[in-house]
Design a protein that fits this description.
The complex is a heterodimer of chains A (776) and B (112).
Chain A (H helix, E strand, L loop, with lengths): L10 E6 L5 E2 L6 E7 L2 E5 L5 E4 L5 E4 L7 E7 L3 E6 L5 E8 L13 E2 L15 E6 L22 H4 L10 H10 L32 H9 L2 E9 L2 H5 L10 H23 L7 E4 L2 H9 L3 E8 L8 E2 L2 E2 L3 H14 L1 E4 L17 H15 L5 E3 L16 H7 L20 E3 L5 H12 L3 E3 L5 H13 L5 E3 L9 H6 L3 E5 L3 H14 L9 E3 L21 E2 L6 E2 L3 E2 L2 E2 L2 H4 L6 H22 L1 H12 L18 E2 L3 E2 L4 H8 L9 E6 L2 E10 L5 E9 L2 E6 L1 H22 L6 E4 L6 H8 L3 E4 L22
Parallel strand pairs in A: 11-12, 12-14, 13-14, 14-17, 17-20, 20-21, 21-22, 22-23, 34-35
Antiparallel strand pairs in A: 1-2, 1-3, 1-9, 3-4, 4-7, 5-6, 7-8, 8-9, 10-25, 15-16, 18-19, 24-25, 26-27, 28-29, 30-31, 31-32, 32-33
Helix pairs in contact in A: 3-15, 6-16, 7-10, 8-9, 10-11, 13-15, 18-19
Chain B lengths: L1 H6 L19 H10 L3 E14 L2 H5 L8 H5 L3 H14 L8 E13 L1
Antiparallel strand pairs in B: 1-2
The chains are: A alpha/beta (776), B alpha+beta (112).
């Protein structure tokens, strides 16, 4: 039945239900292009927009505007109305399915086939992990610095505009030249939709790279966890000539968090209604697992700013206290944030920064002076502990010209410091307030981002996590302290690395994997930092991609990504926009083979298990041999009727999660296990084990107590008696219910499988002899 | 069980919940189904078994192990007890308190 959401993408003519006459027949029929949930652009066959002129008439106009946005209300039974967003004019209408509509211009995903889903909501998760994205960074530096945005109510032609000129005014343009195209080489002929000359590009850092159809392409290739950090920098924001947002990190966090949810709504609108889109913001690992096993993308909201909670420092005096930290944690938790960087590019009240190298580092260092009252202060240190090495600047070049020119205020008239030979370490480590923050993050189950902390700061933060047995500690992209990876892995944390050329990334994965702990599930990820002033790998012919190619899971076929007139090819364009991560992943398969892909696709499971432990789920431990069954439970840890989440908290992380079950190990008996089986509503209904003195036992819920012995067992015996399976044969128990037949046949020394949505099979012991068929 | 719920005017928890025939695959239907599925030499036999509950309360409690369980457990206490009481009345308890119910199933056999 037609709804206000299912209208999306349909071709419709309009009839007034009061007059019974067609509406704007000369301009129709209309492609229903969703601008938001339940709001549509009525796109004409002449590529125009049906618009309320405000004088009581409708006209097709060439550009969209609020007067071309129509809110649809009502339903198929009571009828629909169209309300113009600009004029509020309301018209009762009937939609009449039509043909001959135009196709709305949009960036293409260029993938066919359905991406994979999980066996059940609680099953092992399969998929890759983006540990560090910035899909809301279009609001960076006051909102007028970056050209383009990841979506627009009016689609790609307006999200990815033909001209970036308005973002190049004054110092905005100066900073673009500093950061863009490796500095000082920004093309003068940049053009967006539809030609895309010059951008997107792996080195175009001031132009949008994360347009949502690109993320969709990566999702179709297997991306299942997408950590996106709300990001800003107050000092650089203040240098911008034009801006429309306040230069305040926490204000920006609120704005960007709203953007993230708006993007989710927009994708829902394109997908048929609330909750139907593939882009799902999640706030706990259990929700994330369900989303992933639906075959969707779990989006985790993080923060990467230098003055989180307003906690900067000036002349080594902190600008906040513990009460403000507590209030800040609640504030961001309420927004849905579950991970953040205590320290970013500037020293702050929590600790020292890792610093930034090169020309960009010189500008950021000047920002550090503006924010804290001093440039970075370094000390010699062992090479393995070093932070970003600082150069002796400036003698000239672009940073000097900027710092002596348009943004001289950053240096306060002081020359940039000249550092001695490296290695350099930031003298600042974790402060007492920083230690307080880390402890509170652990208590409140946040995932701690260690990147950007100076080695001294990160070492102290990781030590606290280790002492508190907190697995929620990650290194997700650049600016890390790799000497700490072994400890992060030992704590049960997660590492994703910056994206490198394919062979290099394979090597890095091997190095990191060697540091990982066998105690925890290993998976790997990448941290693109796209839209975060991070260059992406450029063109390469090292592992040429042949188009079309199939996804690693094999069910999606990719052709070259097309935006307007631009056709992207990984070999010649590099990682120009996020959609090319699908192609890069295929290249990674060519470079690293299936072993590499296995680790990449175990990334989601590894990340989820890390997050589960961070929120208090005990890590995997085996059941004691001889654990007793009772009518309602197995030992002290598994109780019938529990939800999957309750079972995790009470019994800990299972060894594996096949189908609708959790499988636990038994101490000292590698061949023994305990299976906890859940029903379709996620309730524990069956516990089976081959552990207790070698015999099978199981307990189930009410049906076990009042129906198994009285009703199911007699019928199962009757059935088996009549079927007469041979010793050593196999029995497939279809629609197994509580598993009575599977259990009974197994006790007669057969191998039994029950196939109620991939329930586990049981290899069981030898007991009992079937009695005669009583029903004969 | 269905009669008891209908007598107590409990709403159907799902379509055809109170249509006993909807739970049954008849002899001919079952034979046809298996034959169409490629089994040969299909035979179907209606088998009866006597099932025993040690106490009336146990027999009444089977409601909670059926698809009606969530509906009944979600009723107000008085209404729930009324359903249970009506169900109990329809079960015949022996002098020893046992409940014996004659149950039937269609069991098919085929070769593939």
């Amino acid at each position: 039945m037609l709804t206000i959401y299912s209208l999306v993408h349909r071709c419709e003519a309009l009839t007034g239900t009061v007059t019974g006459r067609p509406i704007a027949r000369a301009d129709g029929p209309f492609r229903m292009q969703a601008a938001a949930l339940g709001v549509y652009l009525l796109y004409t066959p002449q590529d125009q927009y049906l618009t309320d002129t405000g004088s009581g008439s409708l006209a097709a106009q060439s550009d969209p505007s609020p007067a071309a946005e129509w809110a649809v209300r009502g339903n198929a039974r009571r009828g629909f109305t169209l309300t113009n967003v600009a004029t509020s004019a309301r018209t009762p209408v009937r939609f009449v399915t039509a043909g001959g509509c135009a196709t709305y211009p949009e960036a293409q995903v260029d993938a066919t086939g359905n991406s994979f889903a999980g066996a059940s909501p609680e099953a092992n998760a399969l998929g890759t992990v983006e540990g560090h994205a910035h899909i809301t960074a279009f609001e960076l530096f006051g909102g007028d610095w970056q050209c383009g945005r990841p979506w627009s109510p009016y689609g790609a032609p307006y999200a990815l505009p033909a001209s970036c000129a308005k973002d190049e005014q004054g110092t905005n343009g100066v900073f673009q030249k500093t950061f863009d195209y490796s500095g000082g080489s920004r093309p003068s002929n940049l053009h967006g939709w539809p030609t895309f000359v010059g951008w997107p590009s792996p080195t175009a850092l001031a132009e949008e790279g994360d347009y949502y159809t690109g993320v969709e392409r990566a999702w179709r290739a297997g991306l299942r966890i997408f950590v996106t950090d709300l990001v800003d920098n107050e000092q650089l924001c203040q240098q911008m000539t034009t801006r429309h947002l306040p230069c305040n990190d926490m204000s920006s966090v609120h704005v960007q968090s709203g953007d993230l949810y708006a993007l989710q709504d927009y994708i829902d609108a394109q997908s048929g209604g609330p909750g139907k889109g593939w882009f799902r913001i999640v706030t706990n690992p259990f929700q994330a697992r369900r989303v992933i096993n639906q075959g969707k993308l779990a989006v985790i909201e993080g923060i990467e700013v230098s003055r989180i909670f307003g906690c900067g420092e000036y002349n080594n005096v902190p600008e906040c206290n513990t009460a403000q930290v507590d209030a800040g944690l609640k504030e961001v938790h309420d927004l849905g944030v579950r991970t953040f960087f205590p320290v970013h590019e500037f020293d702050n009240a929590f600790g020292g920064t890792k610093m930034i190298a090169g020309d960009s580092g010189a500008v950021v260092n000047a920002g550090n002076r503006e924010a804290t009252g001093s440039f970075w202060t370094v000390e010699p240190c062992p090479a393995q502990d070093q932070d970003a090495e600082q150069t002796s600047l400036p003698g000239g070049g672009l940073p000097a010209s900027i710092l002596n020119g348009p943004v001289a205020g950053l240096t306060g008239g002081n020359p940039l410091p000249i550092y001695g030979p490296g290695p350099h370490c930031n003298v600042h480590g974790l402060t007492s307030l920083g230690a307080y923050l880390i402890n509170r993050m652990i208590q409140q189950h946040f995932i701690i981002q260690t990147d950007h902390m100076s080695s001294k700061t990160a070492t102290a933060a990781v030590a606290i996590a280790t002492a508190r047995h907190h697995s929620g500690i990650v290194s997700a992209h650049c600016c890390s302290s790799p000497q700490l990876f072994k400890q992060i892995y030992a704590d049960g944390g997660f590492v994703s690395e910056p994206v490198n050329p394919l062979a290099a990334f394979v090597n890095i994965e091997g190095v990191d994997k060697a540091e990982s702990s066998p105690q925890y599930h290993f998976g790997f990820g990448w941290g693109s930092d796209m839209n975060g002033l991070a260059e992406q790998p450029g063109p390469s012919s090292q592992y040429p991609v042949t188009y079309p190619f199939k996804s690693y899971a094999g069910n999606v076929t990719f052709t070259r990504e097309v935006w307007g007139q631009r056709v992207f090819d990984l070999d010649t364009d590099g990682l120009a926009n996020y959609g090319l991560y699908a192609d890069w992943l295929h290249g990674l398969q060519l470079a690293g083979g299936n072993a590499m892909m296995h680790d990449m696709f175990q990334g989601a499971e590894s990340y989820l298990q890390m997050w589960e432990r961070a929120v208090g789920v005990p890590s995997t431990s085996c059941f004691a041999p001889g654990t007793r069954f009772s009518a309602r439970r197995f030992g002290p840890r598994l109780r019938l009727g529990e939800t999957t989440t309750q079972a995790l908290f009470s019994a800990g992380q299972p060894v594996s999660r096949p189908g609708r079950s959790f499988r636990y190990c038994v101490a000292g008996s590698p061949s023994r296990h305990v299976s906890a089986v859940f029903n379709a509503r996620g309730r524990l209904v069956l516990i089976a084990s081959n552990a207790r003195r070698g015999h099978v036992r199981y307990v189930a819920a009410a049906s076990e107590r009042f129906m198994r012995r009285q009703l199911f067992d007699p019928w199962a015996r009757e059935l088996l008696c009549r079927a007469g399976p041979n010793n050593g044969g196999s029995v497939l128990d279809v629609a197994t219910g509580p598993g009575t037949v599977a259990h009974l046949v197994a006790t007669q020394s057969f191998t039994a499988s029950s196939n109620r949505t991939a329930s586990p099979s049981f290899r069981l012991g030898r007991r009992n002899v079937l009695s005669g068929c009583s029903g004969r | 069980m269905i009669d008891a719920m209908q007598e107590c005017e409990i709403s159907k928890p799902y379509p055809r919940a109170f249509d006993a025939a909807s739970y049954v695959l008849g002899v001919e239907e079952l034979a046809q189904l298996l034959t169409k599925a490629g089994f040969r030499d299909v035979t179907v036999e209606t088998v009866e078994l006597g099932c025993v509950w040690a106490a009336g309360d146990d027999a009444v409690a089977t409601i909670s192990g059926t698809p009606f369980g969530p509906t009944v457990s979600g009723l107000p206490v008085a209404k729930r007890e009324r359903v249970q009481a009506v169900f109990r009345e329809r079960l015949e308890c022996s002098p020893a308190g046992e409940v014996r119910v004659r149950t039937a199933s269609n069991i098919a056999r085929g070769v593939k």
